[in-house]
Amino acid sequence: MPLVEIHDLSKVFPLGESIFGGGAKGEVRAVAGVSLTIESGETLGLVGESGSGKSTLGRLVLRLIEPTSGQIYFDGKDLTSASRRELRRLRRDMQIIFQDPFGSLDPRMRVADVIAEPLIIHERMSAKIRRERVGELLKAVGLDQSAAGRYPHEFSGGQRQRIGIARALALRPKFIVADEAVSALDVSVGAQIVNLLAQLQREFGLTYLFISHSMPVVRYLATRIAVMYRGKLVEIGTTDQVVTRPAHAYTRSLLQATPELSVTT
Fold first, then answer.
1. Pairing of strands 77-78, 27-38
2. Segments in the chain forming alpha helices (H)
3. For 175-186, how does the pLDDT look when each residue is reduced to its tens digit (9 = 90+)?
4. What whole-number distance in Å separates Cα of residue 92 and Cα of residue 27?
5. How many angstroms separate the Cα of 198 from the Cα of each of 165, 178, 264?
6. Which residues contact 93 (CB under 8 A, 6 or more apart)?
7. Looking at residue 265, what is its pLDDT?
């Protein structure tokens, strides 16, 4: 059984009144009838240009926003009909890494508190054990334990993203949505984060939905690639299939428009 199953998922956002008067309204279909599966332990790369609906799809999968129609199953459980209490329990196993490594971290909280926040909400443990867990997580993402007492603004963008990754790992989830996790970083730092994500996947047995506008990044990390265009899934296949034998013209344009990614292991 796949870890994640999506069936005919759609999201429509209503538009406000026209600025020209008359009260005319409309809607934007951000995601239009998407169906796909994600197997346990794999990385599904979701690629498309800005506005293609890929980030909306990532948030729908976690039910951070509500779908207009369709079904989402996680580990065999129907998320679309889950109660708030059930969702709270299931979210232990589903986490997200955001694009902006500064905006996603509370600047008033020390790093230890940022990482420990999910533990405080979901786990019953002593302060001592919580501190030990924070230290383990910092080490796992390549940061010194001295980082625990500092604030997010004291770190570089790449280091802040590592803090965000540590927070996402705090509850030892099965599934992580990485939403443009390296797009705000320069190329060399982004490559380091990509390598870290691959390493953590091996160590923790993670499953990723890796969202990016960069085909080379997705090509490096993903087991399979799904291509979104104007809210629709236009192609999906193994990385080799999509990269060497793209079936859709939009996929071919993405491959031609972006250079190779240089990632050293």
1. unpaired
2. 54-61, 84-90, 111-122, 127-140, 157-169, 187-204, 215-221, 239-244, 249-257
3. 999 999 888 788
4. 33
5. 12, 12, 12
6. 74, 75, 171, 173, 174, 175
7. 47
